Amino acid sequence: MSSCRKDFDTVPSSGNLQFSKDTVYLDTVFTNIGSSTYTLKVYNRSNKDIAIPTIKLKNANSKYRMMVDGMTGEDKDGNGIGDGKSFNNVELLAKDSLYIFIETTASISDANPTDFLYTDEIQFDSGSNLQKVNLVTLIQDAIFLYPQKFENGTKESLLLGVDKDNLEVRINGFELNENDPINGNEFHFTNKKPYVIYGYAGVPEGKILKIDAGARVHFHSESGLIVQPKAQLRINGTASPNPDKPQENEVIFEGDRLEPEFSDVPGQWGVVWLRDGSTSFVNHLTLKNASLGFLMQKSDLTITNSQIYNSSNYGILARVSTILGENVAINYAGQAGLACTIGGDYSFTHCTFNNNWNSSKQLSVYISNFEKNEDESITVSNLDRATFNNCIIYGSNNVELFLDKVDSASFNSSFENCLIKFNDRGTGIANDEIYNFIRNQESGNIKNKEPKFYNVDQNKLNIDETSSAFEKGNAKYRIPTDILGITRSLIPDIGAYQSAAFPK
Question: Rounded CA gap, 471 and 467, in Å?
Fold first, then answer.
């Protein structure tokens, strides 16, 4: 009890505060969308307890907001809520520190028109004791797409069908409009501004959504894209001519959190759902951090030169569908990078499937001609074709390819010149003859050899000449250029990437 302070006599600060940083960079935000919270630490290195007369934002109408050691600032409006702009007589004990938490919500009109930066500064004290810390935020203009609210208080939604009781099944979302009064033709995404989608954007039956090279599409949490029956999706990305900007002409689908700490966080948004009878053509797309990349149900997808990363469930989950895939790379998925289920028709050439998800049950590739239902019954359909040529199927588990079939439907699979992670010793499939083509390394297949990817954690599945995939491909299936547009050798490497020296 005798050690407890009963008084807090302080002296005015003398301009000798120290800070954890002299500039707080609040990473890129979209116009009028709140930022994350950033932290500044203020230190009193002296032996005296001090009182900082004022801590305030330079601009009285600043778009920044502060919380100082749990305080919200002066209550100028008398509503019991601090303004987050100014604080008086803030005490700071000797050899102690305090936290300042900073946020902003600013529009593109608030930013400098030449560099789109919005700036301010936190000022500590005044006069000869004035100290300051700069605040800097990049504001990015965007096109926002979201469900409309109606006068009766309800919100727009997308019809997905009817249930067994003939009741409508709907999801939070909206249909794109070719004559929107604000955005104009929403069936054409350009590269002039990024798009930010709230809820699910639907491509209506009979319509085509075209997305230009270099377009950026950001999805909010629990949002995504639904290509309705008999609709089309056409993603027209191209190879980037500048090697220093390899994604310049890519189309990118990702979440709407732009801070660096969210750059590789799975499950930030929903899914691209390709519904029954829809047709999609995808070239040079990078899709990352979704719950599920592509969900397909009796639909057709041609996907080339594209990458799918960090899906919390599947990179691609296809049911009774058709996929033609060339130069596709899928990395990190909570369940499987690629799952071709309930039969269908699938062809993949020069693709790289890798899965290092931290789970004993994850796979790179799963193929089946059936699916078990909730009531333990199964839905069966013919697997007309599942061909993999010059592909890498690898990951952190012993077995990264799982073939799952019932005899009541056909199961036609073929693997040629593929590098496959398959160490089945002690597993439940050790005696399954369907895998003999891997065990015996038939048709040019390679078992359990290192592809030596450049950096799996950074989604860089490039290889060099030391890789076991180097010049092990079959020239019959050679695609002239790789996923980056680099010319393949006449005896091609296996996988989506042509070998090259790694940067030092």
Answer: 9
Contact between residue 498 and residue 440 where contact means Cβ atoms under 8 Å apart: no
Residue 269's SS3 state is strand
Quick check: helix, strand or coil at residue 476?
A: helix
Q: Is 350 left (phi over 0), alpha (psi -120 to 50) or beta?
A: left
CA distance 17 to 456: 43
- Under the banding of pLDDT at 50, 70 and 90, the label for residue 3 is very low
Mean pLDDT, residues 152-160? 88
Query: For residue range 61-87, what is the model confidence (pLDDT) as tens digits?
Result: 999 999 998 888 876 666 656 789 999
Which one-letter DSSP state was computed for residue 487?
Answer: B
**Measuring CA to CA, how many Å separate 325 from each of 306, 312, 341, 347, 497?**
9, 21, 16, 6, 14
3-state secondary structure (DSSP) of residue 442: helix
HSE of 162 in the Cβ direction (CA atoms, 13 Å)? 4
Nearest to 298 by CA among 282, 317, 318: 318
- Structural contact between residues 350 and 390, judged by C-beta atoms closer than 8 angstroms: yes
Q: Which residues contact 123 (CB under 8 A, 6 or more apart)?
A: 54, 55, 56, 57, 58, 130, 131, 132
Instruction: Phi first, then psi: give them for residue 158, nearest 5 degrees.
Output: -105, 135
* Closest listed residue to residue 456, CA positions, set 282, 337, 348: 337
Instruction: Measure the CA–CA gap between 225 and 247, rounded to whole angstroms.
Output: 21
How far is 387 from 304, CA to CA, in rounded Å? Answer: 16
Sign of the CA dihedral 9, 13, 14, 19? positive
For residues 144 and 123, give the distance between their C-alpha atoms in angstroms, rounded to a whole number: 35
Q: Does an H or E element contain 438, and which?
A: helix 436-439
Please enumerate in sequence order all residues whose Cβ is within 8 A of that of 304, keeping only pairs 6 or more positions apart, or say none.
Answer: 282, 283, 284, 325, 326, 327, 328
DSSP letter for 486, please.
Answer: P
Strand partners, 57: 122
Asked if 49 contacts 10 with a C-beta cutoff of 8 angstroms, the reply is yes
Mean pLDDT of the chain: 93
Bridge partners (DSSP) of residue 380 are 370
Nearest to 92 by CA among 66, 64, 124, 116: 124
SS3 assignment, position 262: helix
* Cα 219 to Cα 197: distance, rounded to the nearest angstrom: 5
Surface-to-core class of residue 443, CB atoms within 10 Å of its CB (0-12 exposed, 13-18 middle, 19+ buried): middle
| 1 pLDDT above the threshold of 70 | no
- The C-alpha atoms of residue 324 and residue 314 are separated, in whole angstroms, by 18
- Cβ neighbours around 152 below 10 Å, total: 5
* Cα distance from N-terminal residue to C-terminal residue, the chain: 61
Separation between Cα atoms, residue 281 and residue 235, nearest integer Å:
6
Which residues are bridge partners to 498 per DSSP?
none
Q: What is the pLDDT of residues 374-410, one digit of tens each?
A: 888 999 999 999 999 999 999 999 999 999 999 999 9
* Cα–Cα dist 232/239, whole Å: 22
